[in-house]
Amino acid sequence: MPSTDANSGEASQYVEVALPLPFRRTFTYRLPPDISPFVECGARVLVPFGKKTLTGYATSFHDQLSADLEAETVKDVIELIDPEPLINREILNLTKWAAKYYAAAWGEMLKASLPAGINAAVESIFTISEPGRHALLRAKSKKAAKWQILQHLVENGATDQAALGKLFGIAAAKRGTNELSRSGHVSTERETAAARVKEKRQKAVRLLTTETADGAKPFNDVQEKIIHTLQTSGGEMLFTDLLEEAATNASPINTLSKRGIIEVYVRDVRRDPLAGAELPEIDKLTLNTEQAFVFGEIEKALGIGEYKAFLLHGVTGSGKTEVYIRAMRTALEMGRSSLMLVPEISLTPIFSRRLRAVFGQSVAILHSNLSPGERFDEWRRIKCGEARIVIGTRSAIFAPLENIGIVIVDEEHDASYRQNES
To answer: Which of 38, 121, 228, 397 has its CA 20 to 30 A from that of 370?
Structure first.
C-alpha cells in the first residue's frame, strides 16, 4: 500500500484513494487543479468507480504514475468532501497496520473508524429524455415498471432512485432504471446526499443588556418578564424554553432583538449519553501497598514516555479501577489523553459514570448502543480535543484521540474483544 505521507502543501497530480470495498489495495485518481491544493491525507473524496460514485479516503499523493498505469485510464476525483480531514494521522496508521495484519480492506476499515451515518451517500437522479418521451407515447401497454417510471418522470420531473424504490418497489425500480438507462430513455445525474447524522442545532436567545437607549421606549410588562427570565437563567436560553417559561410568543422576543437588548442565534446542542444520569459520590481513597506499587510503576513509565505494557492481577473489588483513574489523571496532567476499553456495553454505564464524576466533561463515551446522534457528538468532542478521556467497547479503539498516554483494556482476556467477521 502507498505511504500515508501528508500533502506537502504543493499541489500533487495524483492521489491514492482507499475505497470501502473488499479490495486490499488503493486506487489512483487524478486531482483536478481546483481541488488539488486543498486535499489532505485522511480527507474524504467522491470518485467514480465503474458505474458507481463512491466515497473514498485520500491516503497519499504523487506526481508520477506507476509503470502499470496509463494516463488516459486514470479517472478524476469528482469532489472533495472534507476541507479538513476527518481521519487523523494516528487512525490512518492504525487502520493501515490493522488491514495488513488481518488481511482486511483498508478502505472498509477506514469507514468503520468513523461514526455510522457520517459518510455522505451518492444518489442517482433520473430525468426522462426525448427518446424516452417518444417511446412512452408509442408504448401499447404501460403495465411494466419501466413505463410506469417514465410516466412518473413525465408528471413529476427528476426523481431519485430512493423515491422510485418507494413507489414501485426497490427491485422493480432498479431493474426499470437500469433498462431505461441502457436504452437512453432516461438521463442520469449523481449528486451527494446529506449525511444521515449531523450536528443538532437549535435557536437560542442571549441577553445583551438590560438598559434601554436614551429616549427609547420603556419595556412593557411582557418584555420585562422576558428579560427577567433570561437573567434568572444565566443570561442564555433555548428559544422554545424562553417562550414556555416567559409565557409569551415570538413577537416580543423579536422586538427586543431588533432593539439590541437580546440576541437570537443558532447554537449546537450536544446529545449527551449521560444527560440526567446520577453520578456516584467520589470518596478520597488511600492506595494500599500493592495498589501504590502498581501505580508507581505505571507513573514511572508515563514519565519516561516510552511504550510499556502492564498486566494487573486482581479479583473484583481489589481496587484496579482506582489505579486506572490515578493513571488517567497523571496522563491528563502531562497533557496526554487516555483510552479505556471494556468488553461489554453493560459495563460502560458503571465505569463512565464514575469517570464523569472524577473528570467531568473531559470524558467521552463510545459504544454501539448510543444513538447515531449521541455517537457523532461524542466523536466530535474527541476530534476537537474537548474530551481527552474515552471509554467504550472495542470499536472505541478508533477514537480520534491525539497524543495518547495510556490505553487500558479491562478484562483483556474476554472473548468480546475479538470479532471474526471482516
So the answer is: 121
